[in-house]
């Protein structure tokens, strides 16, 4: 395998390809995952509402974009991921996990089959804060017969919201037939773009991988439509929390197994039966027998937001910890995710959360807090509609 990263860590405070573009549009910039990134432009609440009602443009170029290629790429990925990569058809996307031997989550990621029968290729998007470790881990665990390439000269944009499709269709008519968790490639002004109908907001939308040198021109072309505004990290976080989507390093980490994290759906039926992936010996019994803790949603009384690390109680007994929290603008109330003892995880269970020395009432709630609005293909009336796959009901 080739293209190993030279270092296990990224340099501090990297600049995004659109750094100056963000500043010209009035962004407030902060450091995140080793990059200087826009946290907000007009304000988090306004940007959150705009994305729910129109189309928000997010720069997520800090994410790791990787390419795994070679004749044995599918089998190689099957050996390191718990998802059924060999069954992933061309133009389809699947959510998956990197696990260690103890079943802990090293990262979560998206896998897209962008290859052909003659030229197998899989496009991976991993989290920005972990991408260097992910690449080192993949280099160690993938065989020499496949090639791992870091697409470090590519930017990644996300166009999210109910008007995203209408906007993108004007520039890329090829996306008209895409449904949620599907992908294609298209040319724009001579540049090859990779487009998937995915996102991290719970809304319909797209993620666009493109050469960094044309990212500013493409962002300008999207922003020329009055339905589009640039959106920062702050609203991205509040949107993903309302959608019930976990954030690596907060709602899960290497000490968290997929079942506790509520991500067991990422382990496909065949892999549950056959195993043969890293972490299988630890995770498969948990799928069968359950775990002592679960990731749940919480709705809090009052207006005080729960923050990561806040203690969760059932009566006088501490039963868990908040992993993500904040005010949920679309809900109109504080919401949180927490890992708590499984015996208290039933929706409707009354609990309390300790916030600044005060005990605040909370209720276990179904997630997502705001229903997903992913674009799914309508099945013909003459056919029995299939049950949605677990991947299609998640991130």
TrEMBL record:
Residues 372-395 are annotated as: Disordered. Keywords: Aminotransferase, Transferase. Gene3D superfamilies: Aminomethyltransferase beta-barrel domains, Aminomethyltransferase fragment, Probable tRNA modification gtpase trme, domain 1. It catalyses: N(6)-[(R)-S(8)-aminomethyldihydrolipoyl]-L-lysyl-[protein] + (6S)-5,6,7,8-tetrahydrofolate = N(6)-[(R)-dihydrolipoyl]-L-lysyl-[protein] + (6R)-5,10-methylene-5,6,7,8-tetrahydrofolate + NH4(+). One of its GO terms (molecular function) is aminomethyltransferase activity. Residues 294-370 form the Aminomethyltransferase C-terminal domain. It holds the Pfam family GCV_T_C. Residues 19-269 form the GCVT N-terminal domain. InterPro entries: GcvT (IPR006223), GcvT/YgfZ/DmdA (IPR028896), GcvT/YgfZ_C (IPR029043), GcvT_C (IPR013977), GCVT_N (IPR006222), TrmE/GcvT-like (IPR027266). Its EC number is 2.1.2.10. Belongs to the GcvT family. PANTHER family: AMINOMETHYLTRANSFERASE (PTHR43757), AMINOMETHYLTRANSFERASE, MITOCHONDRIAL (PTHR43757:SF2). This is aminomethyltransferase.
């Amino acid at each position: 395998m080739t293209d190993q990263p030279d270092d296990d860590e990224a340099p501090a405070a990297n600049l995004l390809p659109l750094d100056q573009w963000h500043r010209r549009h009035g962004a407030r910039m902060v450091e995140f995952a080793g990059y200087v990134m826009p946290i907000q432009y007009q304000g988090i609440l306004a940007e959150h509402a705009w994305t729910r009602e129109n189309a928000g443009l997010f720069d997520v170029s800090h994410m790791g974009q990787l390419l795994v290629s070679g004749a044995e790429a599918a089998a190689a990925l099957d050996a390191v991921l718990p998802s059924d990569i060999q069954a992933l058809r061309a133009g389809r996307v699947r959510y998956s996990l990197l696990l260690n031997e103890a079943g802990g989550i090293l990262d979560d990621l998206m896998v897209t089959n962008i290859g052909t029968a003659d030229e197998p290729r899989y496009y991976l998007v991993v989290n920005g804060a972990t991408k260097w470790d992910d690449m080192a881990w993949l280099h160690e665990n993938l065989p020499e017969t496949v090639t791992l390439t870091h697409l470090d000269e590519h930017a990644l944009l996300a166009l999210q919201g109910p008007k995203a499709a209408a906007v993108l269709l004007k520039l890329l008519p090829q996306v008209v037939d895409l449904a949620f968790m599907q992908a294609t490639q298209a040319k724009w002004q001579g540049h090859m773009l990779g487009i998937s109908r995915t996102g991290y907001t719970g809304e319909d939308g797209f993620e666009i991988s493109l050469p960094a040198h044309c990212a500013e021109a493409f962002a300008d072309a999207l922003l020329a439509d009055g339905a589009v505004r640039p959106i920062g990290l702050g609203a991205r976080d509040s949107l993903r929390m309302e959608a019930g989507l976990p954030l690596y390093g907060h709602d899960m980490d290497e000490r968290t197994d997929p079942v506790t994290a509520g991500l067991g759906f990422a382990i496909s039926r065949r892999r549950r039966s056959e195993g043969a992936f890293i972490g299988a010996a630890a995770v498969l019994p948990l799928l069968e027998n359950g775990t002592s803790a679960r990731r749940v949603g919480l709705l809090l009384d009052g207006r005080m937001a729960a923050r990561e690390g806040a203690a969760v109680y059932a009566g006088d007994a501490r039963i868990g910890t908040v992993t993500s929290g904040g005010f949920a603008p679309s809900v109109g109330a504080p919401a949180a995710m927490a890992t708590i003892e499984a015996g208290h995880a039933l929706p409707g269970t009354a609990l309390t959360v300790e916030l600044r020395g005060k005990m605040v009432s909370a209720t276990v709630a179904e997630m997502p807090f705001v229903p997903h609005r992913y674009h799914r293909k309508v099945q013909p009336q003459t056919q029995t509609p299939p049950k949605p796959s677990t991947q299609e009901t998640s991130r």
